Amino acid sequence: MIDTDGEAESPTSLLWTLSYLAQHFDCVRQTDRALEYVNAALAHTMTLIELYVIKARIYKVRNTSVTLPVSTARHASIDYCIEHAYALC
């Protein structure tokens, strides 16, 4: 991204903006929009645990259980992280 001054902006700016928007829409109970933003943030950087915590909180507000298919070790570890984050909420 290019700043208005012509300087390159940090890629994490988009990540944290998406994270903030997800939390905002979760607070105002617009869970569909919150999920859109947190999923966009996860598409940007899927190794950030905080995003899975945010996603678990959104699902908790919706009273939806969080499960992922466990077909690979990667999915199993992400599933564990989401369930652990969901338990912390």
Helix/strand/pairing category: mainly alpha
- What is the helix fraction of residues, given as a range? 55-70%
Shape: globular
Largest sheet: none
Helix run count:
4
Query: Multimeric state of these chains?
Result: single chain
As residue ranges, the low-confidence spans are 68-72
Our estimate of the beta-strand percent is: under 5%
**What count of structural domains?**
1
Number of strands: 0
Summarize the structure.
69% of the residues lie in helices and 0% in strands. It is mainly alpha-helical.
Strand and helix layout:
Blueprint lengths: L10 H17 L3 H14 L4 H14 L10 H16 L1
Helix pairs in contact: 1-2, 1-3, 2-3, 3-4
Describe this structure in words.
Helix 1 (11-27) packs antiparallel against helix 2, helix 1 (11-27) runs parallel beside helix 3 and helix 2 (31-44) runs antiparallel to helix 3. The chain is globular, with a radius of gyration of 14 Å. It has helices spanning 11-27, 31-44, 49-62, 73-88. The longest helix is centred in the N-terminal third of the chain and has 17 residues, at 11-27. It has 89 residues and is mainly alpha-helical. It has 4 helices and no strands. It has one domain (11-88). The protein starts with 10 loop residues before the first helix and ends with a helix.
Question: Any descriptors?
Answer:
89 residues, mainly alpha, 4 helices, globular
